[in-house]
Description:
alpha+beta; four-stranded mixed beta sheet; four-stranded antiparallel beta sheet; 13 helices; globular; binds flavin-adenine dinucleotide
Amino acid sequence: xxxIDAEALAGIPAEDEALRAPVRAFLAEALGAxxxxxxxxxxSGYDAGFSRALAARGWLGLTLPREYGGAGRSAFARFVVNExxxxxxxxxxxxxxxDRQSGPLxxxxxxxxxxxxxxxxxxxxxxxxxxGMSEPGSGSDLASVRTRATRAEGGGWRLNGRKIWTTNAHxxxxxxxLVRTSGAPEDRHEGLSQLIVDLSxxxxxxxxxxxxxxxxxxxxxxxxxVPLDESALIGQEGSGWAQVVAELAFERSGPERIYSSLVLxxxxxxxxxxxxxxxxxxxxxxGRFAAHLATLRAMSLAVTAKLVRGESPVVEAAxxxxxxxxxxxxxxxxxxxxxxxxxxAVLPAExxxxxxxxxxxxxxxxxxxxxxxVLRGMIARGLGLR
Length: 386
Ligand SMILES: Cc1cc2nc3c(=O)[nH]c(=O)nc-3n(C[C@H](O)[C@H](O)[C@H](O)COP(=O)(O)OP(=O)(O)OC[C@H]3O[C@@H](n4cnc5c(N)ncnc54)[C@H](O)[C@@H]3O)c2cc1C
């Protein structure tokens, strides 16, 4: 039994809940032999072949309309599939951003030609995307981006500038970049636009950055007079800020902002269960994990319900991400504390690998996708407190 199984999984329409069994069966077969120390990477695990295997079963682009290659299902169906993928520690990183936010963004703001070009390839697991928002000096203060696209003679654009911390840029086909198309950085929200940049174009240089653990997940991306077609513009010229804010609701509300440490929690639970007499403290902690998870999951589902109704729950998504990442960070710290109880215990190697990995990674949970302080500022504004 895993932490997630401790609660009755309720609140999801039956036809969407029905997806859970086939996804579990597929994952048991696909990941059965993969050790927890690998699965712990969860949504940071990259495997393009695995993404295509999911696509072949119709589990990518679940919410995209059938005419564009999607399954035409609700956000609840996507929630169920992702919940199972994350709990199993499936390597979902290759398609994650395309499926979560680039596809829905293109569906919402794209032209018919853009939808027909990109969406079927996203659904087949053939087009992977990255997010080009942050720049050196423009992270939390996103409106100050300096990367600029200027009109080229004869049509199209020329792109110059630099992005940073771009997850998977070196393994993606496209970036959706927030850039300035008019005015100056002081103009803030005015004059920003979103462009789809083909990362194989001349003038694009991608340099992976090594993180604390020696992994190379994110990159610096340089644009040196990159030629872009007119069709690179997504949505309205000058409406980039409003579009990016709507995109962040997709980015922040999902179960991946709650479940990043669950493979570790499950490894620890197996260890506790194997004890002849688990300590009071361990049993209390296991109960707390399950209780926190149940509450956060209910909140994430409530945001999903808003997405299903076509709303843009920006503040609610920020709240789920803030509380969810706090939970994800608490798990490794609490488990390390609990293991301290018996310094002589012989710990399973996979549990130690999971604990070391999540402990190193966890500070990034409350930075990626918007920092804790910035989210709390948004929540306070949303509540009318500032
Ligand atoms: C693992 C990881 C993956 C990432 N992937 C991507 C990606 O794919 N694409 C992308 O575009 N970006 C990505 N980022 C970048 C991320 O979005 C930024 O790091 C983040 O928004 C913070 O920006 P910054 O690093 O410039 O820090 P800063 O904005 O300089 O912030 C520094 C500190 O000051 C605080 N601070 C800033 N402004 C305020 C304020 N107004 N009030 C209170 N406190 C404030 C912040 O909370 C933070 O603690 C990723 C980051 C990480 C860690």
